[in-house]
Amino acid sequence: MKELKKNTVVMLGGFIIAGAIVFLLMAATPGSSGIELTLDELMSNQADHKDDFVTVEGFLIEDSIEWNADKIELKFDVNDTKGNVLHVIHNGPKPDNFAEGVITILQGAPTKKDTFVAETVKTRCPSKYEGKDIKEYDPNTHKDKLDKAPEEK
User: Fold this and answer.
1) Which of 12, 35, 60, 104 has a Cα-to-Cα distance from 66 of 20 to 30 A?
2) ∠ at Cα 82 (52, 119), nearest 5°?
3) pTM of the full predicted structure?
4) How many CA atoms lie within 13 A of 146 on its CB side?
């Protein structure tokens, strides 16, 4: 009878540990529960998404880049073809290919009006899509693709 209780305790402990591991894995992947919005959708309904993990894309405005290496803080603005401008704060490294008009993919949360705190910042490399060097990149090439991208997915 004692072995049955010992086995039950061991199995119960194993289930608790397995459950804790599953919970931690789910908590560590917020992107799986997030939503994807166009910049226009986010800007018009920002208050509705303040508690959401959001993916949004925009064109980098190169003149807006502020990099603080001491704090490892990156601030910049993105815009879209409809004139929306979003201020972005990212506590992490600056991507290598930051250049005017590059499509910037942001994942994180909208905070106060027109501001977005990005957990991740990625860029689409224009040379990958055009077969050209970044210096020859024409941002107008991808403006219509940015507006259509979330609808096609």
Assistant:
1) 35
2) 30
3) 0.61
4) 27
